[in-house]
Write a sequence for this structure.
């Protein structure tokens, strides 16, 4: 009985696409519309990393993130005390997420070899890195690369033996704990 309700809930949630899938579809349709309106119109098969960068720059006009120019008196200040006329741009995080969704959408439609994916082009990665660095400098907040924590092998392995030889109380505690579950 309980399993049936879980199955029904799973089935009903799978009938409508997830928020991510819906956003990916909207983003994909936006790119296709951009390519269609491009002068001259472009087919997806002729699209390159340069076209993707052009698309990202086009999206800047709809941005909501103020990016101070170097000549601005508030350049490098995280919390500027007054308004300025610096342009609004797309935030780096939004562009990065957008490219991730478009890269996945391209692969799902069978756009060809991964090397032919214009959203995964090296030029696009470099452009995104430059946007991130520029926006970080403009806000005065560095994007520090997070260091991955590597587990130590000696500490990652649990030691069942408590030092009292084989068959010590460490093994007994394990049996008690497993019977309580």
């Amino acid at each position: 009985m309980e399993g049936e309700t879980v199955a029904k809930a799973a089935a009903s949630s799978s009938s409508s696409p997830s928020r991510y899938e819906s956003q990916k579809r909207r983003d994909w349709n936006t790119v296709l519309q951009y390519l269609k309106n491009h002068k001259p119109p472009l087919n997806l098969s002729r699209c390159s990393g340069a076209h993707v960068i052009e698309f990202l720059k086009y999206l800047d006009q709809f941005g909501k993130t103020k990016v101070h120019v170097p000549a601005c008196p508030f350049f490098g200040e995280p919390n500027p005390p007054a308004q300025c006329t610096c342009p609004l741009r797309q935030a780096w995080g939004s562009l990065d997420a957008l490219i991730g969704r478009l890269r996945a959408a391209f692969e799902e439609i069978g756009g060809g070899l991964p090397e032919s994916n214009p959203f995964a082009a090296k030029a696009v990665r470099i452009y995104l890195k430059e946007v991130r660095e520029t926006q970080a400098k403009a806000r005065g907040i560095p994007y520090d690369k997070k260091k991955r924590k590597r587990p130590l092998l000696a500490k990652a392995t649990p030691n069942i033996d408590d030092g009292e030889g084989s068959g010590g109380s460490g093994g007994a505690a394990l049996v008690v704990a497993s019977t309580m579950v």
